[in-house]
Amino acid sequence: MALTKITTSVVAVNSLTTANIADNSIDATKIASNSILTRHIDDAQITTDQILDGTIATADIADDAVTEDKLANAINTSIAAKAPLATPQFTNRVGIGVAAHGTAALNITSTAQHVRLNNGSELGIISLESDGALRIWSHGDSSNNEIEFYQGSGSGAASMTINGSGNVGIGSSSPSAFKLLLEGTDSQEGLMIHAGASSSQWLIRAEDNAGNQRFVVKSTGDAYFNGGNVGIGTDNPGVILDILTATANTNGVVRIQNNMDNNYEALRIHSLGNYDAQMSFLAQGDSTYWGGFGIDYSDAGKFKLQTDNLFVGGSNLMTWARDGKVGIGTSSPSQKFEVFPDDDHAAIIGRAKVGNLGYSDFAGFAHLDSGSQYAILQHNTGETYVNAASGYPINFRINNANIGRIDTDGLKFGTDTAAANALDDYEEGTWTPAYNNGGSISYATRYGSYVKIGRLVHLACNIDVNTVSGTNAGAMQITGAPFTNDGVDETGGSVGINLSGWLNGSGSDTIQINATDAVILPSKDTKNDIYRGTDIGTGFVRWSIVYMTDE
Fold it and tell me: What are the CB-based long-range contacts (under 8 Å, 24+) for 503-507?
């Protein structure tokens, strides 16, 4: 019997259900294309438990043949793995590649990329690696593969950006060439690193490509920089630490505060390897001035001050030796304080000027304001001068009280200032006495001496006579006294005469200074009654007298 073709137009609605069709009784090849339309299938008539796995392939479903409005709301999470077109209308948790998680809304398991995002031109991938690493991958080229983290409502704002070079910007969407760029507002703090108290914890550790530590900061313990010069206030440091400021500060540019006890130094300049420990100063403007001080290791560790930044080739100003001796103008002081030794230099100490006072090879002392007037000068031979300015005396004191003075009048004692009382002369010497009584005389010896203090003269005479010829009835006269007396004749002294032939009157012999010719008159009294009566043989005359001269 021949079969008649059955079309959907002759099949009553709901007369043919899936329950009336045995499994595998209708082969897909027996169903003409477009013979079954979605409008012919009521909601909930075909459920997933009625469709065998693998019986409907995506190739068998025409484009737009199955639409959302034709899918019953009964589809649930149990078909999530088989429903790639499911929308965010799932009311429970979803599992992709694995059962839904007990608490997580989305549970994804994959041995490859877990999430792959594609906007049609660029690709982004999120995956969990086998070693546990979470990988976020922006798959574009270096110019458009940033990873950006946004915060805030609306379109938000970039709070962190990783650019195509791997540089990170926090608060900045353009970290540029910096590996880490932190950019905040005026009211935001920049960076805080907080760690525990262990000295083994690094706060900051920077190394070069060879693994050498260049910059290290620990929570406790040492911190150091070992990477070249450091500049504070300058971006072009020329030395290990270069500090520059143009801001006036009453506390200085660098301040070192010491809150320790006095057993420790606040600052140490430490040289190694037998080198000098020195500090230099440079004043640079229209002119350049150098200065320096420190320990000269090569010169027995002396502390020196100089007009240069280095001891080698510098001009030494002052030296402190290890034995406590101090030198100015010499690096080898032999005394506790020595200034330009054996040279014509002067020094001022308070109001005193010492050293060279304008007299070559003389050491002097003077008042600073005395001009060319000095107080003391001494030559290298020992010759010494004591001086006072014109019109002023040289005073001598004991216990701050005058005991004498020297002025143009001479030496005055005590507080006496009278010119008449001045001692203005002291002299010692010899003179040659001569017998002057007529006739002729032959001397064995003759000698005279004197001491003159002011106007007071002590005169002595000694004559040894061989013979005297001739006669003279007058007094014995001896001439040659060094000082005359034109005042009142003075008589006194002591006389010794031992001459044969002299006739002496009564009384003691005395000496009389003649008032006009300084003739010595040995006599017994003022009547000149010592005389010679006959020729005299050998004998002597000795006498002395103290008298006042007119000079």
Answer: 503/530, 503/531, 503/532, 503/533, 504/529, 504/530, 505/529, 505/530
What is d(CA 363, CA 384) in angstroms, rounded to the nearest whole number?
9
CB atoms inside a 10 Å sphere around CB 169: 22
Q: What is the pTM of this model?
A: 0.51
- Residue closest to 139 by CA, chosen among 159, 172, 175, 115: 115
Q: Is 441 left (phi over 0), alpha (psi -120 to 50) or beta?
A: beta
Amino acid at 21: I
C-beta separation of 461 from 541 below 8 A? yes
Any idea which residue has 């965010």 for tokens?
A: 88
Which pair of structure tokens corresponds to residue 216? 């290290």
pLDDT tens digit string along 89-99? 566 788 888 88
* C-beta separation of 356 from 372 below 8 A: no
**What tokens does 300 get?**
């027995």
Residue 306 burial (CB count, 10 A): 23
Cα-Cα end-to-end distance for the chain: 197
E strands, 417-550, where? 426-431, 434-435, 440-453, 456-469, 478-479, 490-492, 494-499, 502-503, 510-513, 520-523, 531-532, 539-548
Q: Average per-residue pLDDT in the chain? A: 78
E strand segments, 244-351: 277-284, 288-296, 302-306, 316-320, 326-328, 337-339, 346-349
Percent of the chain past pLDDT 90, that is, above it, reads 23
Tokens linked to 236: 């072009």
Contact (CB, 8 A) for 405 and 397 = no
Instruction: Judge whether 117 and 139 are in contact, CB under 8 Å.
Output: no
List all residues 6 or more positions away from 261 whose beta carbon is below 8 Å from its beta carbon: none
The secondary structure of residue 420, as a DSSP letter, is G
pLDDT higher for 535 or 123? Answer: 123
Q: How far is C-alpha 391 from the chain's CA centre?
A: 53
Task: Delineate the domains of the chain, giving CATH numbers in brackets.
Answer: 426-548 (2.60.40)
How far apart, in Å, are the Cα atoms of 157 and each of 161, 170, 359?
11, 11, 90
**Cα(309)–Cα(288) distance, rounded to whole angstroms?**
12
Query: ∠221-224-227 over CA atoms, to 5°?
Result: 160
CA distance 207 to 199: 19
Cβ pair 77, 92 in contact under 8 A: yes
User: What DSSP designation does 3 have?
Assistant: P
Length of the chain: 551
- Model pLDDT, residue 363: 93
Kindly give, in sequence order, each residue whose CB lies less than 8 Å from that of residue 177, ignoring residues fewer than 6 positions away: 165, 167
Measured at the CA of 307, the angle between CA 302 and CA 308, to 5 degrees, comes to 85
Please give the Cα distance from 439 to 304 (Å, whole number): 87
Strand 456-469 and strand 440-453: pairing?
Answer: antiparallel
